[in-house]
Amino acid sequence: MPTTDGRVLALDLGTSSARALVLSADDAAPVPGALARHRISPTYGAGGSATLDLHAYVEGLLGCLDELQQNGHLVDITAIVLSTQWHSIVALGTKGEPLTPVITWADTRSVDPVLGKDFDEHAYHARTGAWLHRLYWPRRIPWLRKEVAATAFAGLPDLVLERLTGERVTSVSVASGTGSLDLATGRYDEEALAIAGASAGELPAIVPTGWTAALSAEYARRWPGLVGVPIHPPTGDGAASNVGTGGYDETTAAVTVGTSAAVRVVHPIDNAPELPWELWRYRVDDERAVTGMAFSAAGNLHAWLTSVLKLDKDQQEPTGVEIGSSHVVAIPFHAGTRPPATVPSASGVYFGLSFDDTGADLLAASLQGASLEIDRGLRMLDSLFGRELEVVLGGGGIDASAWWRRCLTATFARPTTVCAEAEVGARGAAAVALGLSPEPGGESLKPVPEEAARVAELRPRYEKLRALAVEASAI
Questions:
Q1: How many of the other CB atoms lie within 10 Å of CB of 440?
Q2: Domain ranges in the chain?
Q3: Domain spanning 7-233: which superfamily?
Q4: 158-195: per-residue pLDDT in tens?
Q5: Cα torsion for 380, 386, 388, 392, to the nearest 10°?
Q6: 223 contacts 215 by C-beta, under 8 angstroms
Q7: Chain segment 274-292, per-residue pLDDT in tens
Q8: Can 7-233 and 240-473 be said to share one CATH topology?
Q9: Is this structure's pTM higher than 0.70?
Q10: What fold does the segment set 240-473 form as a domain?
Q11: Peptide bond before residue 340 is cis, with ω within 30 degrees of 0
């Protein structure tokens, strides 16, 4: 049953920031002023490394709790929930000590897997929802064993949970993001473990959604208001964002646009539709999965272009350019593509440039290209679930650009609803833990017929030019 008394402390473990905020327990709405943030700066290095300092990260997060405590916000807390980045990994020694920094999803280091002749990658993908890609643990663990004498492995949320409770465990949601989970059983996949060269005992134990723990004794004096408060298992940020945006069942696709973008549908794990090769699937909790597609270029594309073109604040919306305008077409492969596609980074292309084009034309083409990429994923999900899905929009990119909201709505050629809440990850983690069903609460948009018609006319040309860009990326 939903919990409606008290307040919820949400910890959001992002790649660019760690945040702690307080939410109301009845609708998971943020309590005004009850937010503390610790900025995170990933370290990028030669050879494709992209890491986080584990000690600095955890201490920064604990400092956020100190700030909330000092400002009187850690009172009447009845639950602690976590939303977290997926895919991170840390190699651990014999005493559980970290031997490496946090290896993030953006790190490109791994080794090629050693596979038997009877390996069926399509069956593997159908079972785990993942591919044998460097993003996932079956290719990370063999590489880490070559680098350090590791005896165990854990993700960032697992180690944060251990720091707070003394128990190193993980959730079915976080475990699914390792690419090592049998989605149907909720246990580590035997073939994935064999490819990784690891045993289930070397990975964090998977606890059920209803599991809770309490804050360890060392923090009782530091945060007395949290003593005895149940701490719930973490939810992967993609699943949490979907639920927090308002896309929590199979009738609705949630499109989130932040640094990157994704389109996803939450649905029951039982009798789930057969997973297409192009889509991934992770778990939300014991009963639900989330199926979708992610895109590497979104808000980062907008930030890069406005910086390169030195656009003033009032020029960062291409308001004078028609949605669906086709004289400039952008293929947004600047950061490459996510698996299973293999387009590398530095593959972005602009077609049709002339001396008449302005910064606004380039910006509009970029946002239109990103919208068409997201639309590809949405159409696959429509087909998978056998209906034209309702769409909710959320994330910083959605909030920042009215033009982009209209462009997405026209590209999808269907009404959309905008999520009014910015903290969708924290909101979703609270909803999963407490059994809530949040509504988007924002404006409703309808496609402008003329704009939708122009995008429909543009789409075949875009697809042809996209195919050329894919071909060129292999040269």
A1: 22
A2: 7-233, 240-473
A3: ATPase, nucleotide binding domain (3.30.420.40)
A4: 999 999 999 999 999 999 999 999 999 999 999 999 99
A5: -70
A6: yes
A7: 999 999 999 999 999 999 9
A8: yes
A9: yes
A10: Nucleotidyltransferase; domain 5 (3.30.420)
A11: yes
